[in-house]
Specification:
By secondary structure, this protein is of the alpha+beta class. Helix content is 30%, strand content 27%. The radius of gyration is 27 Å and the shape is globular.
């Protein structure tokens, strides 16, 4: 029985300031990755980034290597012949084959007439290496340490040669738009080194006025013709000593301190890239180093410090990061590393995706190991889960601004995708398929079995709505999100067709990425209305309907969406008791397949939940169990991170935590970057992929707080290993930030801050303790209700207000 009542409580604390003091003290520990040796390979180096420039620092003693990247370093070029014109009539003829059960013929027709024809797709590629060659006085090397401090985004290397202490600091500055290196010694005139470049792209390098200038054009024929033009500059200032430049290197002798400034730019959407490059370096060189550093730290920490996380002390807390990693690889657990992994994911997103980034994070963020770009999949934007996962952490992790370059990219996709919608499907609006680049590619990939997924654009566009429900920014919804969502919904209305047998609206031909089924002795990939399409269409229509209501626009269009929504088929359960992946209950050809796109309804959406749809939730669990139990399960970094998110939504703390550890143990390297392992999807070696870090971080957050059911649920999947701890600053739908402290698995202290005017409801477990409110506060009205074993507390807050509860 449910009981609801209103209480006037004098003992509720509401602080009417935007930055009131929390009941939580800032974590005294620093978030630091540190090592006692230099990196001897790319996957042990440490990443830096400012949203445009990326650097991987090795930390060598005599020879330092910094691998350089810039997010717009792309090969390829626009391709107006990327797709085969099809049109509505021929599309309907192909669909008829499927309606008649002629799946093999339908797949052959789709392969012949609907596969994309990329000629100059291109790839993101690395630039090359900045090299520092040092000469030291005689003496033994001792006390070596390199570290990446996540709280200030500075990579530090220090060691002694004899009695001289050498220190280096590296960072990528967003305010000054440059990569910056500071070299110091505690004995005057002890720095002697050469600065040079080892480029992976064809380049002209020349010494000009004690600096190096390098320029060229990206050429990467493996992924087709074309490529951007680029320009870079390395400038140096030194205290004491001599600086000279010749023979493509800068020589510095007998200096006490040295500052190195580097910028690299391309002509991608920038006609003034050369002038911008020179101006950036010259401006930075004119400033005091401490000013450069302080601006960087202030800018970066404004984002990073919003969230803090503590799962308790670990016996490995004092060990170097690679030693902690080795312990986990050997079978140990490390709650300190769990928290570090989460904050490292937030660090990487800040480094890869800022408001002024010209492009969003790609398959490798903004870093490039020169491996992914040489794979058949290229270092691009995969829209069948990878790019989506890159941004799963942004809103719940209190990094809303990091979404901006993704949204700008989606706007570009929506413009380019109108041609694909019109020419291939005879539809209004826009569509994009599995693979995308920076040149407007929205057609199917060459292989329809993996490349034909016209609702991939719908999936990536759903991030626009997610951002709104976390921020409640109505101006953003009206001016940026809704026009793109509406246009994609128009495509879906025109694209879908009524099944003559069932009467349901159907998508297709399409795939369930990147899986296949058996039918009459054939292994096939293409069908009509796979489960993921149904779930995506539902999400697109429902969010567009709600957005139009909020904005009070498009009544007739809203009605048409509401009618279409009712004609979608239900989410179905197959004969094996799991979520049915295709409209017909086909036999899986690859039971061990890494993709589980038919579980989008569980996460990141909320169409399936243990609370509202327990039968479907049980079926989703069976889907996961069948996949994991299949021989040779194709587990990779993103699929394991996905498991954390899925199990968190099922409230299964034990299984979610097992996947947290498995992600670290099997799919993470010494520098905590996640990898796609050798042997999966044709990879001949382990390759860094950004999505595992970000989706893994999102999954950890989902284990701690969820808000998709219309209320805030605290610690929904808390494992025993995190039995006592706290977090600060995680975000919830409706525009709130939450701090939480718990002990022995029980909530103790709760603080919520409103970033916009709204009402928030907490679902709290009834225990022997009571909810209390700090005394000395203003009067406030709130709603409280009880149902079964839960108490629901609803409060209304104004923007900037904080509300505190104690639960003992």
């Amino acid at each position: 029985m449910k009981k609801t009542y209103t209480i006037l409580l004098i003992s509720i604390l509401i602080v009417l300031v935007a930055n009131g003091q929390s009941v939580f003290s800032q974590n005294a520990r620093s978030y630091i990755l540190w090592y006692e040796n230099p990196a001897d390979e790319w996957m042990k180096s440490l990443p830096l980034g400012n949203g445009r420039i990326g650097a991987m620092v090795f930390g060598g003693i005599e020879k330092e290597v910094i691998a350089l990247n810039e997010v717009t370093m792309w090969s390829g070029q626009p391709d107006k012949f990327q797709e085969r014109p099809l049109g509505k009539t021929m599309l309907n003829d192909i669909r008829q084959l499927f309606f008649e059960g002629k799946y093999a013929e339908g797949n052959r027709a789709v392969t012949e007439f609907m596969s994309g024809t990329p000629h100059s797709f291109g790839s993101h590629v690395p630039a090359g290496d900045l090299k520092l060659d040092f000469k030291y006085p005689a003496g033994a090397v001792s006390g070596y340490k390199r570290e990446l401090n996540l709280e200030n985004a500075i990579n530090t290397v220090s060691f002694k040669v004899g009695n001289i202490l050498y220190t280096r600091e590296y960072f990528c500055s967003n305010p000054d738009n440059a990569f910056i290196v500071r070299l110091t010694a505690n004995k005057a005139k002890s720095l002697t080194l050469d600065v040079s470049l080892d480029m992976l792209r064809e380049s002209v390098i020349k010494a000009v006025d004690n600096s190096l200038e390098f320029s060229g054009k990206v050429s990467f024929p493996k992924q087709g013709p074309g490529g951007v033009d680029f320009m870079g500059k390395v400038g140096v200032t030194a205290k004491d000593g001599n600086v000279s430049a010749s023979n493509n290197k800068i020589s510095i002798a007998d200096a006490t301190s040295v500052t190195i400034i580097l910028d690299l730019r391309t002509d991608y959407n920038n006609k003034h890239y050369k002038e911008d490059c020179f101006a950036t370096v010259n401006k930075a060189l004119s400033q005091d180093y401490n000013r450069l550093k302080n601006k960087h730290v202030s800018d970066y920490s404004n984002l990073f410090k919003r969230v803090d996380l503590f799962f308790g002390k670990s016996e490995a807390d004092k060990l170097p990061t690679d030693k902690r990693w080795e312990r986990v690889k050997a079978g140990k657990e490390d709650v300190g590393l769990d928290a570090l992994f989460f904050q490292h994911a937030r660090y990487l997103l800040i480094a890869a995706s800022r408001e002024d980034s010209p492009l969003p994070a790609n398959l490798q963020g903004i870093w490039n190991d020169n491996l992914a770009c040489n794979m058949g999949w290229t270092n691009d934007y995969h829209l069948d889960i990878n790019t989506q996962q890159n941004y799963w952490l942004s809103n719940i992790g209190n990094l809303h601004e990091c979404n901006i370059p993704l949204f700008d990219y989606i706007k570009d996709l929506s413009d380019y995708g109108q041609k694909t919608a019109r020419n291939v499907y005879g539809a209004r609006g826009w569509a994009a398929n599995t693979v995308a680049n920076v040149w407007g590619y929205t057609a199917s990939g060459q292989g329809v079995n993996w490349g034909l997924f016209p609702l991939a654009g719908t999936w990536i566009a759903s991030h626009l709505w997610t951002h709104y429900i976390y921020t409640m920014d109505e101006n953003y919804l009206r001016n940026k999100a809704y026009p793109i969502l509406k246009s994609n919904a128009e495509f879906l209305l025109d694209y879908m067709v009524q099944d003559p047998k069932s009467g349901y609206l159907m998508t297709g031909p399409s795939t369930s990425p990147e899986n296949s089924f058996r039918y009459k002795g054939n292994e096939l990939s293409v069908s009509l209305m796979p489960a993921c399409d149904r779930q995506l269409a539902y999400e697109a229509f429902a969010s567009c309907i709600e957005a139009s209501r909020i904005l009070n626009v498009d009544d007739r269009f809203r009605d048409s969406l509401s009618i279409a929504l009712k004609k979608l088929p239900p989410i179905m359960i197959g004969k094996n008791g799991a979520i049915q992946e295709w409209f017909e209950d086909f036999e899986e050809a690859q039971p061990n397949h890494r993709h589980t796109t038919h579980l989008l309804a569980l996460y990141p959406f909320a169409q399936i939940s243990p609370v509202k749809t327990p039968g479907l939730a049980n079926a989703a669990r069976k889907t996961i169990e069948y996949r994991l139990a299949a021989p040779n399960w194709e587990d990779v970094e993103w699929s394991r991170a996905n498991m954390i998110c899925l199990y968190a939504r099922l409230f299964d703390a034990k299984k979610a935590y097992e996947s947290v550890v498995q992600l670290q143990r099997e799919f993470t390297r010494e520098n905590l970057l996640t990898i796609s392992p050798e042997g999966i999807a044709g990879a001949p070696y382990d390759i860094f992929i950004f999505d595992g870090n970000e989706a893994g971080g999102a999954g950890i957050a989902e284990m701690l707080i969820q808000s998709h059911e219309g209320y805030i649920e605290l610690l929904p999947a808390l494992p025993q290993q995190w039995n006592t701890g706290y977090f600060k600053g995680l975000c919830v739908r409706g525009g709130g930030e939450v701090d939480l402290k718990w002990k022995d698995g029980q909530v103790q202290d709760i603080v919520i801050k409103a970033i916009t005017d709204n009402k928030f409801t907490f679902k709290l477990v009834n225990t022997k303790g009571n909810i209390s409110f700090p005394k000395g506060a203003k009067d406030v009205d709130l709603q409280m209700s009880t149902e079964n074993d839960y108490t629901y507390v609803t409060i209304s807050l104004k923007k900037g207000q904080r509300f505190e509860m104690n639960y003992r």
